[in-house]
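Following up on my earlier thread - several people asked me to post the actual chain instead of describing it. Fair enough. Here it is, all 228 residues.
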Amino acid sequence: MPWTPPFQPTELVARLWLTIQNIRSGLGLRGAKEHALGPLMCRVWKRLVRLHAEVERLVTAVREDRLRAPRAARQRVELRPTRSEEEASAAKAEDSPPTTPWEKLALPRGFRGLLGVVPETRQTGGQVQFWINDPELPELLAKAPQLGRPLRSLCYMMGIRPPPALRPPPRPRRPRPARPRPARRQPRPVGDSAASPSSSSGPAAVLFKPPTEAEILSWMPGQKRPMP
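Reply from S.P.:
Thanks for posting it. Predicted structure:
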């Protein structure tokens, strides 16, 4: 009987889910080799499922033309709780069931964070790269910039440099305060008698005394300079 290749979905979100399923296979292999990492593998898988759900929600909203514009960030004012509110929050914490130990585990972060913990997922990096380069993705990102955040997280996790369409917009620069300019020096008046050297007194006035007309004529050729 001839071998039939498995069905490959052509829809964008379905292909992303298939890629995440392949990443899960690598998580299962690592968890089978190191049982101590089993809880961490469960948390990574839960993170990937949420990532796919967020991408699917945004893509569906764009295609059905019901995507809402992102709200502007509001400044939250933290109010100091009263004594009764503190007691109520403490009682609620005591009544709530304790979280499981695997929920407290830190997820792999940074560039190639998942590959360092689960090297079995390296073979899936090419599939993620192929999916990121889909020609339909830039059009979706132009209509829904919110898609960039989960997809950048997936790229960093798998050690892939995000393409230009996925890069975050540059942050606006803060306006720098204008530096005060030094005071411009006022020009000295030409007819200022107080600042002219001829009207000053002292040794400097003697050194810079202008010559008389007789002295100027004596310096001319053919004239004799009078003796002092």
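Residues 12-66+101-166 form one domain. That should answer part of your original question.
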